[in-house]
Specification:
This protein is of the alpha+beta class. It contains twelve helices and eight strands. The chain folds into two domains: 164 residues, no CATH class; 111 residues, Orthogonal Bundle (Arc Repressor Mutant, subunit A).
């Protein structure tokens, strides 16, 4: 089994890097104040924002390598895996709406590049949050204050994300985002348990394209086929499920495969190794 740090609670990562634990539901870590610590590949059960002037090289998020700029933000969400492998109660209104922030998605494989004024505003907000945590006992009023700060930080991040998106080619990029979101919704709503794996024809129909034209656009944008994109997404989900402790049979069933050996065959074709070999790495 690979050395994966499970971050099921905001303070799991704080304890790993020996940072102060300030609150049971939120963790704010200042890297400059920490002693040297080992890198970790993390299996996230929480939302997280990593804000740094310089990031390590070769960071990953899902099946992709992250494109990280200096002075930027990396956003992660529950059920996903990312970081740098070590070599040696969603209840609030903010939490219920957090899916609208697209920069948490695996689809977004870059970082949020801040302008100097945005860096200053966001780091000041984090410093104020930290001061609140250090000087006030946990209470409903404190949590409301923290939620207000978090909402403001997320809106800054969203503004940066939308700015970067507008700088890209909106045609193919928008289709890929909608394609990815369609797959994400399909599995989040567990449609695979009743209808099986999503097909190219179904995806094309949902996005109002003919299957052939849809396939051509996806191939032009990614260099891969539409079915290849679907399969990569499925195997990405499979890796997360396996790392969360599900066995091969459970993972196969949860993803909508009729038989475990069909899952194993696809996993090996995409990754070059079997699920069993993946778990042993």
């Amino acid at each position: 089994m690979r050395n994966i740090l499970k971050v099921d609670n905001p303070n799991d990562y704080a304890r790993f890097v020996d940072a102060p634990v300030l609150h049971p539901l939120i963790s704010i870590i200042h890297y400059d104040e920490l002693a040297p610590f080992r890198h970790s590949l993390n299996n996230y059960g929480v939302y997280g924002l990593f804000i740094q002037r310089q990031f390590p090289f070769n960071l990953s998020y899902g099946m992709r390598k992250l494109q990280v700029s200096d002075g930027s933000i990396i956003a992660v969400e529950p059920g996903q895996i990312g970081g740098l492998e070590d070599n040696g109660e969603r209840g609030s209104e903010l939490e219920r709406q957090i899916d609208r922030y697209q920069f948490f998605s695996y689809f977004f494989d870059g970082s949020l590049r801040m302008e100097p004024d945005e860096w200053l505003c966001i780091t000041q907000l984090l410093a104020q949050m930290r001061q609140e945590l250090q000087t006030h006992e946990d209470s409903p009023s404190l949590r409301n204050v923290l939620l207000g700060y978090l909402h403001l930080i997320l809106e800054y991040c969203n503004r940066i994300y939308l700015r970067q998106l507008s700088e890209e080619d909106r045609g193919e990029a928008d289709l890929l985002k909608r394609f990815h979101n369609l797959l994400q919704t399909y599995f989040r709503e567990n449609r695979q348990l009743m209808h099986g794996l999503p097909t190219v024809a179904w995806c094309a129909s949902e996005l109002a394209y003919s299957p052939r034209y849809f396939g051509d656009i996806v191939h032009k944008a990614t260099g891969s086929t539409a079915i290849g994109y679907i399969h990569n997404y499925i195997i990405n989900q499979a890796k997360s499920l396996l790392m969360q402790g599900h066995n091969i049979s459970e993972t196969s069933r949860l993803l909508g495969f009729d038989f475990p050996h069909h899952f194993t065959r696809l996993f090996k074709r995409i990754t070059g190794i079997t699920p069993s070999e993946f778990l042993k790495k």
